[in-house]
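Structure request: Membrane protein insertase YidC, Microbacterium protaetiae.
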Amino acid sequence: MQDLLYFATSTPAASGGGGFDPIGFVLWPLKWIVELILVAFHSLLTLVGMNAASGLTWVLSIIGLVVVVRAALVPLFVKQIKSQRKMMEIAPELKKIQEKYKGKRDQLSREAMSRETMAMYKKNGTSPVSGCLPILVQMPVFFSLYSVLSTIKGNAEASKGGIFWLTPELTQEFYNAKLFGVASLHESLQGTFQTKPEGWQITVAIMITLVVLMIASQFFTQLQIVSKNLSPEARQGQAYKMQRMMVYILPFAFVFSGVFFPLGVVIYWFTSNIWTAVQQFLVIRNMPTPGSQAAKEREERLAKKGKALDAKGRIIPMDKYVAEQQRLLEEAEAAKAAAPKRQQPVSKQRAKKQSQKNPSNPPGKSGGSAASPS
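Returned structure:
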């Protein structure tokens, strides 16, 4: 337990202040796993003949970490897609609830709107938070990698290792590794500008290129969703306008990461963005939101192949689809014909006028004619 507390408090903030670092303590298990995956991929790549001290070997190890983390998040991503679909489906109902309590600012009205909204979420098995699960789970891993790479320089200069798997020898090896022979994986763009080591211009060019590519990949991913994968109903209202605006604002948040994060973290983030873009493209192409532009394009592609989607979303031959649609139409017409016709209610004044026009049918009695005298 003492060793655990030592490793948890051996972050720069804790060692500088001499106190207990709760964030470092919470991230310790994740940092242990991050080091394990990095070292495992590094050992595997070295085993197949790559140079153990090469920057490319460590870069590929970081990419391997991305693959492991994102593959583990696939079930959560599927859940996120389903949750987003349900949120889009219930968007009109949520809008009705908002319209119902529009302009009502008293406490009781706000509580009633909140109860009805939560009941709608519960009924449909979704919530706004479930759409954020993948990124919420991934962020601790990201910060763990940031912590591991940020301590490389200090540990190497002190001839120490990481928390477990990064031995002093591997830490020194990572510290000396350079991408393309010039860019240190533990250095940030800000640090490179300050120290200006040999070949710093190439390092700056690499970092700026990665930041531009990160912005482009993030923009492409968000634009796919907004332009192709939203139903007409979802394109209405303030939420769509905010989402459209965030397409152009959010990617530039990576400018901050590109300046202050180590090159290894930037490579992790960029690779993760590429994974997200490809994953989102495949989802939009093969499981688009019903009613969206992407859904229409998919139906057109299936139609060219003589196929279509049935009521349950399964791909079936076109002849079966036509037969199914005909059957559904006949069932709908039969149900409509069998439904009892609703009699229009008549007001008292209108009934009185009708009785004056037709005395033989007084109000409240059916239209039977009076018997003629014999």
